[in-house]
Design goal:
By secondary structure, the chain is an alpha+beta fold. Helix content is 36%, strand content 30%.
């Protein structure tokens, strides 16, 4: 990939950025005023571009000063605004679904037709909405390899932002705000094939190395788990839907000295509308001195298998997702979702998820009842009696199931 060099000093004051934007917008408005006596479709075009242009600035400011804010997204705080940190470590995973994109495009077309009909200043808002739609489509395209030739500069900037300079190259729809405000790397760099493979989600030929010492420690910990006598607690739940038992969920906690093991096993078989549904889940977590050093998640859902494993090593997590390895910056994990079955969360506000590899919000909503917010916007409710989880309510759009503790 081509290199570039930028010697401009960046403008780091958001107020200065806004002032520059307002000066440019002033020129747009002056242009629209001067064209007032021309044909209405010319004025309409200027107003639409004004709205779209404003969105590109808002997108840049949001990405730079909110999603990468040191105040709200401190490196080890566990905060992750709009799952942005997760996307940085999983570039190929973009949360917006195809249906949502289709609805955005359809809605934008309807708004354009309506604004043409009324042709007034509502057109500016339509430009903003269309800008948001273009942003989502462009973000998807920037993670497709074939766009390297079509949007070479866009892709180059975005790879730099993901893989080398997270404090540079914030533009998605356009690159000119980065050029104008100086948020482009100054030194020349060639993007290596290994980096582009990671960015586009292609297989990396050389997996992350694991030392023999680390493997030995892990094997010792696992053998300790299975063969060494330890304090043990088991919780058994019936999985119910509409009053019928459709499966089971068992949680085991073993403790010896400074080592804590947690294991979850569940199996469910039911029918959702006209379709049969089956799911098998296994989760394992190891804590040492109160810090998570290993986690494992496996799910087989209607025949489709998913596995995620994380191991702490040398200040990082080696994460293996469905056979693909990556290296993530280590964030101390003190609280894991599996612990919710064994103890009430109390004052905790975050719990670590083994499958999504991120911290999820948990909030007390009533006496002895807590709500866990999942990455897809759904909720799990945990209910407690005498500090023990007696029931979990899994609420989804089309159904609700319950994990009920056996007596």
């Amino acid at each position: 990939m081509k290199t570039f060099q930028n010697n401009r000093k960046s403008i780091d004051d958001p107020v200065a950025c806004v002032i520059i934007y307002l000066l440019i917008i002033g020129l747009f408005l002056l242009g629209a005023k001067l064209m007032h006596y021309y044909q209405w479709h010319i004025v309409y075009g200027v107003l639409f571009i004004l709205g779209w242009f404003s969105w590109t600035f808002f997108e840049y400011m949001l990405h730079r000063f909110i999603w990468h804010s040191k105040a709200t997204n401190k490196r080890d705080s566990g905060n992750d605004t709009f799952n942005h940190s997760y996307h940085h470590t999983h570039p190929t995973e973009i949360k917006m679904t195809k249906l949502k994109r289709l609805l955005l495009v359809a809605g934008s077309i309807i708004l354009i037709l309506f604004s043409i009909w009324i042709h007034n200043y509502f057109t500016v808002l339509v430009g903003v909405v269309c800008g948001f739609t273009i942003y989502n489509l462009m973000h998807l395209l920037l993670h497709k390899k074939f766009t390297q030739k079509i949007f070479a500069k866009h892709v180059q900037y975005h790879i730099y932002h993901h893989c080398k300079y997270p404090d540079k190259c914030f533009g998605i729809s356009v690159t000119w705000w980065d050029d104008l405000f100086g948020t482009v790397p100054q030194e020349k760099n060639i993007i290596s094939k290994k980096v582009t493979n990671f960015y586009f989600g292609e297989k990396i030929n050389k997996p992350v190395a694991v030392s023999k010492k680390e493997l030995f420690i892990l094997m010792m910990l696992l053998s300790f788990y299975f063969y060494s006598p330890a304090q043990e607690r088991k919780l058994q739940y019936d999985v119910t839907r509409n009053g019928n038992v459709i499966g089971y969920l068992n949680v085991t906690e073993k403790t010896k000295g400074n080592i804590v093991f947690l294991e979850l096993k569940s199996e469910v078989k039911t029918r959702l509308l006209l379709f049969s549904y089956s799911s098998k889940v296994i989760e394992d977590v190891i804590f040492e001195d109160g810090m998570m050093i290993f986690s494992f998640y496996y799910r087989k859902e209607n025949g489709k298998q998913t596995s995620v494993e994380a191991r702490k090593t040398d200040g990082n997590f080696i994460v293996t997702e469905n056979g693909r390895k990556s290296l993530q910056h280590y964030k101390p994990v003190l609280n894991n979702i599996l612990q919710l079955y064994c103890n009430s969360p109390g004052m905790d506000t975050k719990k670590y998820s083994n499958i999504s590899q991120q911290f999820l919000d948990i909030k007390r909503v009533a006496e002895n009842r807590y709500r866990l917010t999942l990455p897809d916007g759904n909720y799990n409710y945990y209910n407690y009696k005498n500090g023990k989880c007696t029931q979990v309510d899994v609420e989804r759009t089309l159904f609700t199931i319950h994990f009920v503790l056996r007596n």
